[in-house]
Amino acid sequence: MGPTPTLAQLFISALFLSTQLLSLADAGSIGVCYGLNGNNLPPPPEVISLYKTSKIGSLRLYQPYPEVLQALKGSGLSVTMGPRNEDIASFAASQDAANSWVNTNIVPYKADVNFKYINIGNEVIPGDIGPNVPAAMNNIRNALTTAGLPDVKVTTVLPMNALGASYPPSAGAFTADVTATMTSVAGILAQQDAPLMINVYPYFAYSSDPSHISPEYVFFNATSAVVTDGSFQYFNIFDAMVDAFNAALEKINFGNVKLLVAETGWPTMGDLPYTSPANAQTYNSKVRDHVTQKGTPRRSSYIMDLFFFAMFNENLKAGEVEQNFGFFFPNKQPVYQFW
Fold first, then answer.
1. What number of other Cβ atoms are within 10 A of residue 187's Cβ?
2. Any idea which residues carry the catalytic annotation?
3. Which of 7, 20, 253, 319 shows a CA-CA span of 20 to 30 A to 303?
């Protein structure tokens, strides 16, 4: 038996451990979106088990499926979830409607499910539902606080077309028709220190314009800057797309609002030569390595959280490309090695 450690040694050990834990907490978390647009998917308990055995710590759910929430109880997974887009207007108009949603879909699970974010709207800005988002966010926040969950943060998810300009990244700006809504949304996010969630898909940019976008720029293989934007140099299109949103937030005086990638990924079938398991493996591996190690040129010290899309190939989605973003086949076998 070795010598008894002194109080000073114990203090130093505790300080080292706390520092290590803090650095882990500050590191961006990587999650996977759990879509259910398939008629051959495994039952939710098996899916949650697959998340855990694959060491995927965060899950995004597109609406509150009771059978999934039940399976999440006691899992330890961090959960991001939204309501159906069509319910948002009622939340904006009625605190009672927001309360009812939280009491039905959050409260019964709150002791056993680790809810982190509630996203009010998936790609509803721009669009007819969009102007309802700020009021709905506030009413859901009120409902969460009443339910004893003030630390669950409320946000929304934007597509790239919420930006009227995105190239070069410093030109990033919200479209005129959503600027007022996004100013209100950003104010709510700033109050909570919550991130704005964005969907970022280099695949769609590349496959639609391969003559102007190089594979090196898409797959993180560029050895020199492809885009120089003032003092910022861009070696990959992912950073450029994200920083266009950062610039847009700066233009509405909310540059302090952080970003979270709500979806990114690469399909394995449906659009040769761009879609393949090899391309998906390369892109997803490179983006994972990138975001867990560094920020974007415009936010170099901020390590973002990120969700990949998606856990499974989903055969009820529209079109072969959309059906083949999954890491796993419905039989739980990997489409390619990743986790």
1. 14
2. 123, 263
3. 253
